[in-house]
Amino acid sequence: MATLQLDGLRKSFGSTHILQGVDLSLADGEMLVIVGASGCGKSTLLRLVAGLETPTSGSVLLDGRDITKLDPAARDIAMVFQNYALYPHMSVAENMSYGLRIRGVPKDTIRAKVEATAGLLGLEKLLARRPRELSGGQRQRVAMGRAIIRDPKMFLFDEPLSNLDAALRVQMRAEIRRLQRRLGVTSLYVTHDQVEAMTLGDRLLVRHQGVPVQFAPPMEVFARPATAYVAGFIGAPAMNFLPATLDGHNARLASGHAIALPNAHPGHASVTLGIRPENVVVTPNGLPMTVDLVEPLGSETLVHGRLADGTPLLVKQSGAMPVGEVLYVDLPPAELHVFDAGNGQRLAA
Amino acid sequence: MNRALTHGIIILGVLLFALPLWMILAGSTQDPGAIARGDLSLIPHWSGLHVYIDVLSSGGAGAQPVWRMLLVSFGMALTIAVGKIVISVLSAYAVTFFRFPFRMVAFWVIFITLMLPPEVRIIPTYDVIAGFGMINTFGGLTVPLMASATATLLFRQVFLVIPDELMEAARMDGAGPWRFLRDILLPVSAGNIAALFVILFVFGWNQYLWPLLVATDPKLDTIVIGIVKMIGVETQVEWNRVMAVAVLALLPPVAVVLLMQRWFVAGLTEGEK
Amino acid sequence: MRRTIFPGWLLPAALVLPQLALTVVFFLLPAGEAVWSSLTRTDPFGLSSVFVGIDNFNDLFADPLYVETILRTIGFVAAVCVISMGTALLLAVMVEGVVRGRGIYRTMLIWPYAVAPAVAGVIWLFLLHPQIGLLGRWLNHNLGWDYSLNGTQAMLLVILASAWKQVSYNFIFFVAGLQSVPRTVTEAARMDGAHGFYRFRTITLPLLMPTVFFLIVVNVVYAAFDTFGAIWALTQGGPGKATETMLVKVYRDGVINLDLGSSSAQSVVLMVGVIVLTAVQFRFMGKRGK
């Protein structure tokens, strides 16, 4: 059990700055998910905490102790890798116990720990197998076991579910969360998948192009995205964006249609309005939308179309969709997110 | 294409290699006088098998007994194979898993030797060996053939495709450079090492020009040197003995290739990449 | 370049040291010496040597015998390459085309890889020797075959012995190359109506070209250098100079005639040849990587 604190962590290769001054702190037992597209520096951040790379400047504190210069092995941190990184020539039991054997833990202790960990993960019957004889989900569990068995102060997860198929990913996602809760180990989880981010994290850190853009609990990120990028990234299907100009309380769409906003945003002339597909309301006296594709998903239906001014719009409706070439939609002002058209920042409500 | 024709062509190909082998096997058991008269038959005389015991213990006229030549060949092939593997595993490990000053210089110095096969620099190398006083020594026979870029490049290739995560996982588990090499890298590359062993063993066993030059002492005659010496004597050649020695000269490397065929074929073609 | 590395530089430096030492002592030093002595001339008593620039090379290329040796070597190398690669390709295609017996066929065609060129020479002696050879005595009787007197026949003999030994190596690579041609591609060609040899020529062979180019380089090096054992065992470069390749001449001039200047110049010519060949190979491999 531990707290993690990053102070002004910086990493650059020559003139390329991968990370610029990251400050972050994790409470004991907390699971923090860092999410972002590739190139946002999330993996580098994880590897700096692991000790696999050394920061250009700044420090990493685990339980208040400065571990910035320590070797990975000396940090008491375990890591689950993207492709599991199991040792192909070792059995499941050997894979899990390798770290303990290096540390010279007595054989009896190792055996007991392997059994306990295998029990926790449902791997009891697979201990003698080699990694190549395991399914994807089983390999994932072994990788987890290798991390758990050492009773580390902290877990690091590097996109651990990205190699699994969709069904297994959902299952393992829940398993990871349950285990982490149960063991109460402080965890740092890196992913590019917004669903994983939403479901796993106590808090989310969304990064974009090397800088943090939002740091908040998942539902807050969803409800009040800090930028248009976050708004488009979190939530599926993705949020619709409509360019508009502000005129007092009124936002005017490209077609000239005006929407009365709850708040005025003085000093911002052109904005981007965001609305989630599920918040668009179909109503007979709304704006006309020309339908060009209908995707029935069973319990709900996605309708792709364009407004009169050509702006694309996606509407998510529960149940089946009324047939027709044109759909009349309303954009409820309370559901609109307003972003500055220039820098994409959310305008305070 | 007609299936029978396909099989026919393949069998013809198989015979192209099998028949000459059978010829020297059968011939080795026959009467040397009959062979010299041109009566080489493809039917073995089982009673003539004792020729193998003869050559192994006594060898040819004035030559070393063949068991001794086999021993030298074995020693040479093993030393070269093991030495080369150890040296190139270490250097490939250094250039792939570390960064150190002049790493690329070291790599290029090794790499450039690809362009200098032993044969093209054979005489100056002889001079160097002579300068070390290593003419007619086992070291002179083997050491110069130990450094080659091919094996280093192959291992570098193998090591480069080892996923980063594997090493990172090992480091998180607390493995240092030696432990990682011993516990992870070598076992994971065992197939490649086996393949390279076969290739290098055959390479070492089949050397001719270098031993011819550097080991003029008959005590250091390899079996390949020995057999060419035997046919060089124009008069009164005991052809059955020559054939028996030829069989003994090709059997060990062929056996190594056949026993380790699976790794050898995979490893050989992998080196091309 | 790896993402993660081990820290420190002392250990890796120590690890490359053995190979670097061997390389410097047995590769660079001799190569340097070869270049140096190719530019000098030693007096007949071996007491002093003078720098003569490229005189040795001028002499070499002015010598019609050397030019002849180069041409002869090119012919020999080309013949060995064509015969061994052609045979290997035919056999590989045939073996990959059958289901039953494929494994045993492969084994039966792979083992000659292990035969030393010199031993291959001895085997071919027993096949084609005019007095004792299994086929040779018949050829001698009916066609006057005697390679110890007839230069063309001698050349044919060393070509056959050298190519014979190399078929296995090429076979292994062609089989691997054929196996890497995706089944779906050949199946698509079948659906398009391409049959038999036409399919091979338009689909399989173009996809096999990387293997072919790689093997050409390997076979040229093999034929130019590794065949020394076979040639020396069978003809020692004779009769006359009929089977004297460039490497045989290096050996004869340097070791037997002790003409070090010329022999070194010849070594340097060989080195340049290999360097050009390697450069071509890497250019081509670079292209393939893209």
Largest interface: B-C, 93 and 92 residues
CATH topology value of chain C: MetI-like fold
General form of chain C: globular
Structural class of chain C: mainly alpha
CATH architecture label of the largest domain in chain B:
Orthogonal Bundle
The DSSP helix count of chain C reads 12
Radius of gyration of chain C: 24 Å
Uncertain segments of chain C of ≥5 residues (pLDDT<50)?
A: none
Secondary-structure arrangement, i.e. CATH architecture of chain C: Orthogonal Bundle
* Sheet with most strands: strand arrangement of chain C: 1-2
Order of helices and strands of chain B: HHHHHHHHHHHHHHH
- CATH superfamily placement of chain C: MetI-like
Helix content of chain B: over 70%
Helix content of chain C: over 70%
- Might you state the CATH topology name of the largest domain in chain B? MetI-like fold
Q: Could you tell me the strand content of chain B as a percent range? A: under 5%
> What is the makeup of the main sheet of chain B?
none
Q: What top-tier CATH class of chain C fits best?
A: Mainly Alpha
User: N-to-C terminal Cα separation of chain B, in Å?
Assistant: 32 Å
Count of individual helical segments of chain B: 15
Beta-strand segment tally of chain B:
0
Offer a concise description of the structure:
The complex is a heterotrimer of chains A (349), B (273) and C (290). Chain A has 349 residues and is α+β, with helices and mostly antiparallel strands.
Can you tell me about this structure?
The complex is a heterotrimer of chains A (349), B (273) and C (290). Chain A has 349 residues and is of the alpha+beta class. Chain A has 2 domains: 4-225, 3-Layer(aba) Sandwich (Rossmann fold), CATH 3.40.50.300; 240-340, OB fold (Dihydrolipoamide Acetyltransferase, E2P). Helices cover 24% and strands 35% of the residues of chain A. Chain A contains 8 helices and 19 strands. Chain A has helices spanning 42-50, 92-102, 107-121, 136-148, 166-183, 194-200, 218-223, 228-233, and strands at 4-13, 16-26, 31-35, 57-62, 65-66, 77-80, 154-158, 186-191, 203-208, 211-216, 240-247, 250-253, 258-260, 270-275, 281-296, 300-307, 312-318, 326-330, 337-340. Chain A has a 6-stranded mixed beta sheet with strand order 6-7-8-3-9-10, sandwiched between helices. Chain A has a 5-stranded antiparallel beta sheet with strand order 13-12-11-14-19. In chain A, a hairpin with a 4-residue loop joins β12 and β13 (258-260). In chain A, α2 (92-102) crosses α3 (107-121), α2 (92-102) runs parallel beside α4 (136-148) and α4 runs parallel beside α5 (166-183). Chain B has 2 domains: 1-48, no CATH class; 52-272, Orthogonal Bundle (MetI-like fold), CATH 1.10.3720. Helices cover 71% and strands 0% of the residues of chain B. Chain B contains 15 helices and no strands. Chain B has helices at residues 3-28, 32-36, 50-58, 66-97, 103-112, 122-131, 138-142, 149-160, 164-172, 177-188, 190-205, 209-214, 223-232, 239-259, 261-270. The radius of gyration of chain B is 23 Å and the shape is globular. Chain B starts with a helix and ends with a helix. Helix content of chain C is 75%, strand content 2%. Chain C contains 12 helices and 2 strands, in the order αββααααααααααα. Chain C has a two-stranded antiparallel ribbon with strand order 1-2. In chain C, α3 (64-97) packs across α9, α5 (117-128) packs across α7 (151-179) and α9 runs antiparallel to α12. The model of chain C has no long low-confidence stretch (mean pLDDT 85). The interface between B and C is large, with 93 and 92 residues.
